[in-house]
Amino acid sequence: MAYKPEPAGLKLRLIAAQRLKSVLASDNFVPLGATDLADGRDRALANRLITTALRRQGQLNFIIHALLEKGMPGKSGTFEAVLRLSLAQLVFLPDLGAHSALFLAVEATKRDPKARHLSGLMNAVLRNAQANSAKFGMLSDDLLIPDTFGDTWLTAYGEEAIDAFSDALLAGAALDLTLKDDDQDLIDSLGAERVIADTVRIEERDRPVEALPGFAEGRWWVQDAASAIPARLLGLEPGARVLDLCAAPGGKTAQLIKAGYEVTALDADAKRMERLSENLTRLNYTAETVVADAGKFEPPSPFKGVLLDAPCSATGTFRRHPEVIWHRSVGDVAGRVRLQRALLTNALRCLDRDGVLIYCVCSLEPAEGEEQVDWALQSLPGLKLLPIKPEEMVGLEAAVSAKGLVRTHPGMMPGGRAGGMDGFFVARFGRNEIG
C-alpha cells in the first residue's frame, strides 16, 4: 500500500490542540517553543491560533452554546480544543482560510481515539459556523470579560476603562525590558522605545527573547512597565538592607540590586529560586537567596526595606495570560486575600522601626489592593501609610490616587505610549511610633 503523507498543517493543529486542552483544564498558557515545533512559521501559527482562542474565549463560549444543542460532549479528548481552535480561525482569523480550518479539524478529530466518533459532529458544527461567520464576527466585546470580574471592574474603573480592557485583551502585550544601564545604542539595536524611567518597549520582534541584542551579556531583563514600579518607590539610601519577599523569578530583585541595596531574596519555591539565581548570574548581580515560607520567615535582624510582591489572583496580567480571568473565581480571590494578610503581618515583623514596606500585587481586584490597605491600617498597629506622590510617577501621574496609592490597569498608556500595561496595585508603608 502506498505511503500516504500526513496532511500539511495537521501536526501543528494536533500540538496546538493539546496545549489548548491543558489550558482549558486550568494550566497556565505557555507559548509553544522550538522543542514543541521546530519550524518557526508553524510555531508562530500554532501560537496565534491558541492565543486567539484564549483571548476570544467569551465569544467562543457564546458561539459554541449556539451551535451545540446538547452542549459539549463529555469525555471527548481533544474535541473541544480542536473545535475552539477551528472556530477561532473561521470567525476571527479569516486570512487563514476556511477550508484548512474545516479539513484539519476533522482530520485532527479522527486522530484522537477519544474523539474520532465525533468527526461528523465536528464537520457539521464548523460548516454551520462558516455559514454564520459574519454574524458571529460581530459579537459584542462585552462577552470578552467574564461576569465574575466584569461588574467589579465596571464599578472600580468605569465603562471607558472596561472598553480599553477589551482592546488590551485582544491586542496582547508588547515586550517590556528594564535596562541595566541607560544606553541609547542598545535601545536602537533592540528596536525599542523608552516608556518610563528605565523601561523600554519592543512592539514587534522577529526572534526569541534569548536572541535579542544584549541578552547574553546581561544588559537587561524582561519586566512589564507596571511590574517595574514598586521597587522604584522604596526611596532608601544605597547600601540599605532590603528583603524581597516572594522574589522569584527576580525582576524586582535585580532592580533592588541596581539601586545599590544589599538584597536578600526569598521565595518558597526552590525551582523558581534556581531560576532567580540563573537570572542574576546572567546580569552579573549578586544577592543572598533564601528558600523559605514568607509568612513564617524570621530574619536575624530587621531590614531597612521590605518589598512584598504577594501571591494574588493575577487578573492584571490578562494581556499575556488571557486564561487567568476564566480560571479565577470569587473564592480564589478570597483565598489570596487571606494569604496576603498573613504575609503582610510577617513582612511588618521583618521591618526595622524606621524602615519602608512596599506591598504590591498584579491584580485588578480592589479586595487585593485598596481594601487590603484599609485592613492593614486597622489591624496592624505598627503600620502607617507613606503616601506615594505623583511626582514619583513621572509619566504615570494619573495612576496615583488621592490617598497616595498606585493603581495601574491595562487601559493606561505609560509615558503616553500605546500598548497598555499590566494591572498593578502598590502601597507604601512605614512603622509608626508604637509599632
TrEMBL record:
Domain of life assignment: Bacteria
Residues noted as binding S-adenosyl-L-methionine in the record, renumbered to the chain: C246, A247, A248, P249, G250, G251, K252, D267, D293, D309
SAM-dependent MTase RsmB/NOP-type domain span: 137-432
Keyword set includes Transit peptide: no
GO terms, biological process: regulation of DNA-templated transcription; RNA methylation
Keywords assigned by UniProt, alphabetized: Methyltransferase, RNA-binding, S-adenosyl-L-methionine, Transferase
Pfam families documented for this protein: Methyltr_RsmB-F, NusB
Family: Belongs to the class I-like SAM-binding methyltransferase superfamily. RsmB/NOP family.
Protein name: RsmB/NOP family class I SAM-dependent RNA methyltransferase
Organism of provenance: Devosia litorisediminis
Lineage summary: Bacteria, Pseudomonadati, Pseudomonadota, Alphaproteobacteria, Hyphomicrobiales
